[in-house]
Design brief:
The structure holds two protein chains of two kinds. By secondary structure, chain A is α/β, with parallel strands linked by helices. Chain A has six helices and ten strands, in the order βββαββαβαααβαβββ. Chain B folds into two domains: 170 residues, no CATH class; 155 residues, no CATH class. The radius of gyration of chain B is 29 Å and the shape is elongated. Helices cover 54% and strands 18% of the residues of chain B. The chains are: A alpha/beta, B alpha+beta.
């Protein structure tokens, strides 16, 4: 039995009040396990991103709980939750959100710098992880000099540099062409996923479904189905 | 330096266009603010030139006197009355008034005449040429070599001239600490000779210069002078009184204040707008930092550091630029009045801090409002 990395129970979120009230997520319960790559898929407005935000500790649910490695994250204070995210969760955003005025290595080192690690030590570790994502030679370039796929790999480097247990990917292939997107996710599957790590990915892109372990289908804020696909099953 | 501040520093300076715009804005504002306030300081110093140059520790005068130039003559007996106050080491009369010198080409030049006590010559200036004893000779005057000296056609020791229809002779060329405000040359002579040369009312003494026995006697002298219906001020108090008059009773203070405020608003507008744009451009990145785990206070410290760094750098450049311009201006314009005092620097620094605080306040508000969830939503 794999160990649960994320335990979400009865997660509910709405926005607005009165007539403007919109139910974004309705009583969603699921677990995500170490060693698996879990996709959250569904049409636009189905609540994928809202769910992802709640399980990663950046959007407080109206009801329900989220436990990461047994810790009820929404029971933590704001500062403790920020520290928890910094230590335990890595983020890869849809538009990468890299600082164009910093070098690639400096961008990757940001989580370590936020952890108050010495500057040189953080940059050295960042360069090591850039080697992992195949961008060692690009370490001193600004991100704007890199292609979209390379920028996505820089974002992955930034997500993994602090050795988090949970990785959150928000539409990682949305800004990439099909081939590059597949290569990126394949790379993540091969080099980033491990028995000690859980990856949760929101995506629309059916071309990368083959790399998942399980797929959660959302519709109208509800969990429609959890399907097992994928490489590990194949 | 903490790593987060290094990141902040790099974000700031690597955006060269905005960094330059921020620096130009602050530098320009600091330059204008210091230039304006320095001009005002210079004008105030010149307005008190006679007080500074005479250097007496206490001045007794009519209570209605507002500036050293607008004298109200005192009766002679006041001098004796002041001399009789316990605590007065000595007291001497001073004459200050205006005269007309006829130049070689027949035109007239207004001059300021300072008449020093005949016995002591107390308050005499430092001589660059001539002998002070010669001031006791017939028709003797000292000419002050300041920025107005050339208006007397650059006289030398021995130069004869006509003043108020009397013959005058330059017996010394003097140097003083401060030039006057009104653009007229200054001549020193003895008290009695000044009365001979200049038409006077029944009362002749402009000021009584007092040297107290000890600093502790100052208050007693003030009380005694007040009891006699006059006012005794220390040198600093008199300078302050003159400054207050020019600041509040003339348009000079208001106009300078207005220009300083305009400079402040220009600096605030340029740097505030540019800094806001800088924050807006990076707002999603700050949101991403929040999602990753940066606490609000870390982001605030980054923004404050950026604003402070720009403000201090701009302040330094602005002060340097202003000092250089004033130095150059004085080389070519002897009448240029601006002087940079600590107060000018402190005032400009406070204004720059306000500019930095206002600029960063806008940025901090924006960054604290961004929700990491907005980053996910795009």
């Amino acid at each position: 039995m794999p160990k649960a990395a994320i335990e979400a129970a009865g997660l509910t979120k709405w926005f607005g009040t009165g007539e403007a009230k919109t139910m974004a997520v309705r009583e969603v319960t699921f677990d995500a396990y170490f060693g698996e790559m879990l996709y959250i898929v569904g049409p636009s407005g189905s609540g994928k991103t809202t769910l992802l935000s709640m399980i990663s500790g950046i959007l407080r649910p109206n009801a329900g709980t989220v436990k990461i490695e047994g810790v009820d994250i929404w029971g933590l204070s704001a500062d403790a939750l920020a520290d928890f995210r910094l230590q335990k969760i890595g983020f890869v955003f849809q538009d990468y959100h890299l600082f164009p005025r910093l070098t690639t290595a400096e961008n990757v080192a940001i989580p370590l710098i936020l952890q108050n690690r010495p500057w040189d030590e953080a940059l050295n570790e960042a360069r090591r992880d850039l080697e992992v994502v195949g961008l060692k030679e690009r370490a001193e370039l600004p991100p704007v000099k890199l292609s979209g796929g390379e920028q996505q790999r820089v974002a992955i480097g930034r997500a993994i540099v602090a050795r988090p247990d949970i990785l959150i990917f928000d539409e990682p292939t949305a800004s990439l062409d099909g081939e590059t997107g597949r290569n990126i996710v394949s790379f993540v599957r091969q080099h980033v996923l491990s028995d000690q790590r859980c990856i949760v990915m929101v995506t629309h892109d059916s071309r990368i479904f083959e790399f998942s372990d399980r797929i959660m289908r959302m519709e109208d804020g509800k969990l429609k189905a959890i399907e097992r696909e994928s490489l590990s099953a194949q | 330096m903490p790593g987060t501040l290094k990141i902040a520093y790099r974000l700031l300076v690597n955006d060269r266009a905005k960094f330059a715009a921020l620096l130009v804005g602050i530098t320009f504002a600091v330059f204008l603010m210091i230039e304006m306030t320095s001009l005002f300081s210079g004008i105030l110093k010149r307005a008190s030139a006679t007080v500074i140059n005479i250097g007496a520790p206490m001045w007794v005068m009519d209570p209605a006197v507002q500036t050293v130039a607008n004298t109200i003559p005192l009766p002679d007996y006041v001098l004796d009355e002041v001399r009789s106050i316990p605590g007065v080491k000595f007291a001497v009369p001073l004459y200050s008034g205006g005269g007309l010198v006829k130049l070689r080409d027949g035109t007239y030049q207004s001059v300021n005449i300072v008449g020093l006590d005949d016995a002591s010559l107390y308050g005499r200036p430092k001589l660059l040429a001539g002998n002070i004893q010669d001031l006791f000779t017939e028709n003797a005057f000292l000419a002050v070599k300041d920025s107005e000296f050339y208006k007397l056609e650059n006289p030398a020791v021995g130069t004869e001239f006509e003043i108020n229809d009397h013959r005058g002779v330059i017996v010394g060329i003097a140097h003083v600490a401060a030039s006057g405000l009104f653009g007229v040359p200054t001549l020193y002579t003895t008290f009695n000779r000044s009365l001979q040369y200049i038409p006077n009312m029944r009362m002749t003494i402009s000021y009584i210069l007092v040297v107290p026995k000890t600093p502790a006697d100052v208050q007693a002298i003030k009380k005694s002078a007040a009891a006699a219906g006059y006012v005794a001020l220390t040198e600093d108090e008199f300078i302050q009184k003159i400054s207050t008059f020019y600041t509040y009773q003339t348009g000079i203070g208001t106009n300078m204040l207005l220009m300083t405020v305009i400079s402040f608003i220009i600096g605030l507008s340029i740097s505030g707008q540019t800094f806001y744009t800088f924050i807006l451009e990076n707002i999603e990145k700050f949101g991403a930092l929040k999602a990753i785990g940066a606490k609000g206070r870390v982001l605030i410290s980054m923004i404050l550091f950026e604003a402070s760094f720009v403000a201090l750098t701009g302040y330094g450049i602005g002060v340097g630029l202003c000092a250089a311009i004033i130095f150059l201006a004085r080389l070519y314009l002897p009448d240029y009045a601006a002087i940079i005092t600590y107060w000018n620097l402190i005032l400009a620094f406070i204004m720059v801090v306000v500019i930095a605080a206002a600029s960063s306040y806008v940025g901090v508000r924006k960054v604290l409002r961004i929700e990491p969830f907005d980053i996910f939503r795009g």
